[in-house]
Amino acid sequence: MANSPKKVQNPKPSSVLIDPVYSSMITLLILVMACIEICDAVTVVDVYRLVQYDIGGVPFGSRLASLNHHAGSSFFSSSSGAAADLSRTVLILPVRELNLTFIKEYITHRKPLGGLLLLLPPAFSLNSESVGGAHHDSAKDLMKEVLVELEQLLIHANTPVSETITFFGFNRLHLHLFMSDVESRIKFSINPIMYLLMEYICFRYKLVVAVPEPKKVASPTIANIQGWLPGLKADGDSNQLPTIAIVASYDTFGAAPALSVGSDSNGSGVVALLEIARLFSILYSNPKTRGRYNLLFGLTSGGPYNYNGTYKWLRSLDQRQRETIDYAICLNSVGSFNNDLWIHVSKPPENAYIKQIFEGLSNVAEELGLKVGLKHKKINISNTRVAWEHEQFSRLRVTAATLSELSVAPELLQNTGGLSDNRHFVDEALISRSVKLVAESLARHIYDLKGKDINIFADNSSLAVNPSYIRSWLDLLSRTPRVAPFLSKTDPIIMALKKELADHTIEVNVQQEVLDGMFTFYDSTTGRLHIYQVASVTFDLLLLLVLGSYLIVLFSFLVITTRGLDDLISLFRRPPSRKVKTA
Question: Which residue ranges does UniProt annotate as crossing the membrane (predicted)?
């Protein structure tokens, strides 16, 4: 009986020892799991890098592709002042709130900037559904003006944007919530005490984009697609029939190659050409209604680069074929105008063919309630700059004209289907009117129906313009980036255009050429942005200090409860020297 109390008391020390150990392990496990959760990405989104290219060896666009910096916002850039060091900060700027003066300042004064993420409205994404209309939203029109100015600023600036990693993204819900959090933290940090709290204790966001280093696109190719509708020769006529060419450039260029769909420039011209080919294929399928003109349809590439594809395509034609071309009509941006279209020519207005083209289009335009003006601009053979596609024809002494909503010649890499040129700003009804304008004037010339009150492509007839056909092709092109150096030889859009032209014409072929000239392009146009919530180094040190203190207190408690206070104190006493022990 005397030993029984000892047996009862033996388990107590072990239970006292085991329970705190288990509780401490559980606490540490929770802390580790919390740290792991902190390291997870808050969100992952697709981003599109600013174009990187050289002109004559001079660098333009973004030269870097990988990103690893902390996040800042437009509020930070506006409140920090001109002296703020943003060399390790990624500024996130919604385009709706964009201050172009700030961007110009950094470009003009060559200020370092860690990174730039420009958030576009979701309506500008490739997958957004929209039906173009004649009456545009004023807010969207204003947004378009800002994007046009921003794009030209970024495209033509070679420093310091070239040293800044610039991406475009879309301001969707999860990014909007993230931006709100960033801005709220920055607003709080204006107060000195809150600044210390936010900077050294609270979590911050880090933006990471890991992509391969950009490499030169070796020997970029351009693809030209052509098809014929042969005319009907008279019996015993051995002479070649005259030819009328209808041409449109289908490729694009913009600040973000992966977003350059060019719905208007020049998706509208491509759609108009395909519909004109469809309409005349119906007429030419019957010998009784086949005209005495050959019709040549050409979809050319390299438009933004001085129409390099048109230049090579024309020189690939047999000289006798070129000599049979009476004139060519080039279609450029015909889907967003206010009843005014322009015919741009290089030959004098007194030229017989120019007068014929202008009068034919003017007469039909009047019937459609449109106005057509004539713009004459001489070409300089010694200048390599080609502003309009018809100028490549004129350089070979072939009469040609460009039909466009643009009243003046665009500058290099301007109006080439960039960020602002999307489906929201193109009206399919205007494309239908442009198709009817060109097709009707051509038909009246081919069938010699001038001055007669005949409407060949009348509405509700078998030859009526098909709005559904126009809409489907416009929607497809508005979802498909078409920057030539990044299209493969068998790219789906090239194959789709070839197939469609083959359905309406014969002898369809694709001409593959190397894009030459002074342009050099680089890849890595897209990436995945990982947004992490991370703690500062000071926070890590504080956390380590807290954990260390906790472990010391836990250890002291265990020693005191199991072995006594004297044993704990003895651990910190200086051990006796060897001389004392020997004595």
Answer: 541-565
Extract the tokens encoding 553.
Answer: 């207190």
Please state at what angle helix 269-284 crosses helix 467-477, rounded to 10 degrees.
140
538-579 pLDDT, tens digit each: 666 777 888 888 888 888 888 788 877 777 777 767 666 655
* Interior/surface letters 223-237, b for 16+ CB within 10 angstroms, e for the rest: bbbbbbbbbbeeeee
The SS3 call for residue 483 is strand
CB-count exposure of residue 39 (10 Å: 0-12, 13-18, 19+)? exposed
- What are the start-end ranges of the H helices in 395-450? 428-446
Provide the H-helix boundaries in 373-510.
390-394, 428-446, 467-477, 492-504
Give the C-alpha separation, 81 to 216, whole Å.
38
- What integer pLDDT is reported at residue 11 of this predicted model? 45
**What distance in Å separates the CA atoms of residue 539 and residue 199, rounded to the nearest whole number?**
9
DSSP 254-317: -SSGGG---IIIIIIHHHHHHHHHHHHHHHHTSGGG--SSEEEEEEE--TTTTTHHHHHHHHHS
The three-state secondary structure class of 128 is coil
Residue 202: burial class (beta carbons within 10 Å; 0-12, 13-18, 19+):
middle
Tell me the pLDDT tens digit for each residue of 485-497: 999 999 999 999 9
Other beta carbons within 10 angstroms of residue 196's beta carbon come to 13
Tens digits of residue pLDDT in 158-179: 755 556 678 888 866 566 666 6
d(CA 200, CA 538): 5
**Would you state the structure tokens that stand for residue 573, as one six-digit string?**
């006493």
Residues belonging to the chain: 583
| Amino acid occupying residue 557 | F
Cα 148 to Cα 154: distance, rounded to the nearest angstrom = 10
**Residue 29 CA to its chain's centroid (Å):** 45
The answer to whether residue 143 scores a pLDDT higher than 60 is yes
Q: What is the CA angle 20-22-24, rounded to 5?
A: 65
3-class secondary structure, 494: helix
Buried b (16+ CB within 10 A) or exposed e, 125-159: beeeebebeeeeeeebeebbeebbebbeebbbbbe
Q: What confidence score (pLDDT) does residue 427 get?
A: 94
Tokens of 491: 């790219």
Pairing state between β 506-514 and 243-249: unpaired
What stretch of H or E contains 556? helix 537-563
Helix (H, G, I), strand (E, B) or coil at 86: strand
pLDDT tens digits, one per residue of 497-522: 999 999 999 999 999 999 987 899 99
CB 387 within 8 A of CB 415: no
Is the torsion defined by CA of 559, 562, 565, 569 positive or negative?
negative
The confidence band for 190, taking pLDDT boundaries of 50, 70 and 90, is: very low
Within 372-459, where are the H helices?
390-394, 428-446
Cα–Cα distance, 345 to 164 (Å, whole number): 42
For the chain, give the mean pLDDT. 83
